[in-house]
């Protein structure tokens, strides 16, 4: 810790999620003082194509940061940290955007994480059986960058591929935009690009899949300088970036994280003493961080590498320095629930009832299910016992690792009432929870010993989703007292870069990752007996 100072210090965390940019001003004790949010545009030019604009995203980063820092002096902001989805940003030699679709609109230069256009390229990469695949569960996902790059070369050779000079993960684009440094975070290149911290880029892999041109000029297009998350990037904010963000030139910027990893960093080190949890006084490796929003990520760390079939990793220093990370996940969770609920014939009736009661639609559905259970004299969990959902509407990320899988619903009645909608919602949540249990079983069989789940993200605020997961897994679930764990995780990066803390691990022990005050009793959910 830095020495005492009468001036209150703050750190800014910026989280670029799938649909919005959020920023937070965070105190030294890890408390979120103010937040701001702005939506970002998503284009869907073709089936399985999802595209964004790096210009739009950066503009929203700047406006949200200016909003959250309005009430403090610039010199009180000691550091800035960014996290973002693992989307692919393409820039030319002048750092201008390059179109990633046939429409040729240059500002649409981001291939989103959930873009599955490269499914065929991913399958071909998997068929090579290359040794780097052992670090991604044996199967290359279309959500990773190599298949996306291969698709661009094969389909946009005369435009995007010809003009592109820089391919960056979105978190690295943000740190570049802030500092003018092209250093890549180990989080992004290890987890999504097959980079190995000890062996660097595997040239035989890129040659084998037909992307040998990315090896030119010492890998300049994909990065030849890396750094650990939270380490200082460049000389801090450039004059231009500082002016856009409303901060001082030279303010420290921490090497970035993928958004799910920021959430994991924000909760996995939480202090839960006094709640008699099985992870108490146990290594951090007994915990799993589950970041649940549009999609879900299941983050488990280990002292040594553990190879889990169908689960990404092991990644050295992918989230916590010097520890190995395995990352399971579900490609559609919050988005699946929205899809199922909003596509039902009874959705307008649901909206009407929720508005009438002044409730969110999911709060209403949860209450409606409780009423149905009471009326029927049956446990809520058994209401949908004759209705079954296979939740892989956007493929299975883990542990089957099959992006071609599609969803199914079995047991639908001929009626389409509000009760039917509520039951379909319940069955969908239960299916997602059983998917989490499937991932846990795969990790356990590979050597993980996970005793407690730590949740964050939008879905962690849904009590039904949380309780159903506790029931399905048979494990206690912990919710942080500070609900904006992803933003706190991003702020951790800025705090570490400021040198107010010597390392992320020390920072977890001392402040930002420890809920203050400690988690309230209602923050711990156990399975129903």
TrEMBL record:
NCBIfam families reported in the protein's UniProt record: 5C_CHO_kinase (TIGR01315)
Record InterPro entries: ATPase_NBD (IPR043129), Carb_kinase_FGGY (IPR000577), FGGY_C (IPR018485), FGGY_N (IPR018484), FGGY_RbtK-like (IPR006003)
One Gene Ontology cellular component annotation held by this UniProt entry: cytoplasm
Domain Carbohydrate kinase FGGY C-terminal: 288-497
Natural source organism: Salmo salar (Atlantic salmon)
Matches recorded under PANTHER family: FGGY CARBOHYDRATE KINASE DOMAIN-CONTAINING PROTEIN (PTHR43435:SF4), RIBULOKINASE (PTHR43435)
Keyword tags: Kinase, Transferase
Biological process (GO), any one: pentose metabolic process
Molecular functions (GO terms): D-ribulokinase activity
Gene: fggy
Residue ranges annotated for the Carbohydrate kinase FGGY N-terminal domain, each copy included: 10-266
Family: Belongs to the FGGY kinase family.
Name the record gives this protein: FGGY carbohydrate kinase domain-containing protein
